[in-house]
Amino acid sequence: MKELVASGYKVVIFTNQTAASKNKQLLNELLDKFKKIQSVVGIPMQYVVATKQDQYAKPSTALWELFVGKYNGNSAIDKTNSFFVGDAAGRTKNGKKDFSCSDRKFAYNIGLTFYTETEYFMKVEKEPFSWDGFDADGAVKLEKSKQEIQQELKHLRLAEKQEMIIMCGPPASGKSSFTKLMLVPKGYVAINRDTLGNMEKCLALARSSLESGLSVVIDNTNPKPASREAFIKIAKERGIPVRSFVMQANDLLTHHLNLLRVRMTNGKVSKIPDLVYRVFKKQWVFPAKSEGIDEILSIPFIPNFEDEQHRNLFKEFA
């Protein structure tokens, strides 16, 4: 490392220390550790630390962009000859698995050559690994325009008559995006608890909208019959048919879309905790006609991007 510095390299440590923001003592211990490391190694080092599980946490490129934009002294970076060394590399060896693949993903996202700590310092051969994540690059190739999506989903028969559609699926599975892209433009009133604040307001808006002759879409997770029952009752009392649209989204996709929302909003929308997903899975009951639902349809994930920034952020490993 001394030879690298002598030849013009700069050593920068990018690290996730998400517990530090909640524990001042831990943060002080971390700063002491940085000082000791630098004293032992004997070279100048710079630390860029993500202290929360927000838009800056690796493998997001936001931490890198922050460093480049504010903390690198306007120095140009030669990415061709720069590289990143990390131990979160997605390896499994002798039954032991790396705690994550975030370092390898971080290097990939920012366009740097990656080495594990053993590959670089001990000169071992390249080690097998798994990305262990959603194939965003592959999904981007399936991108379709709004018109193409409408054509592919024409079997949904949208806006043919007044109805209630109940969206179902885990958080960050694409329900709201589908609602905004496909249903709101056709006159459906979107009813979302996050927007309205509580269930009473959701039910009131559903009731008044149906009485005004409008179709409605219930854009909540709606994981179990009890969460769907009150809406179905409102529709059935007025003789209005009910359909349920179930999002096709596995854990890898929802994890990816969860972090994408954080990046797209620059942290204004917080990461949904893992606990919320565990609760959803525990409560999940697939919709059934016995609930009073007239038709149940699955909605595939079809990528559609607002602009180039949206597309590029989607392509990042999460």
TrEMBL record:
This is PNK FHA domain-containing protein. GO terms for cellular component: nucleus. PANTHER family: BIFUNCTIONAL POLYNUCLEOTIDE PHOSPHATASE/KINASE (PTHR12083), BIFUNCTIONAL POLYNUCLEOTIDE PHOSPHATASE_KINASE (PTHR12083:SF18). It comes from Arcella intermedia. GO terms for molecular function: ATP-dependent polydeoxyribonucleotide 5'-hydroxyl-kinase activity; double-stranded DNA binding; polynucleotide 3'-phosphatase activity. Gene3D superfamilies: HAD superfamily/HAD-like, P-loop containing nucleotide triphosphate hydrolases. InterPro entries: HAD-like_sf (IPR036412), HAD-SF_hydro_IIIA (IPR006549), HAD_sf (IPR023214), P-loop_NTPase (IPR027417), PNK3P (IPR013954). GO terms for biological process: DNA repair.
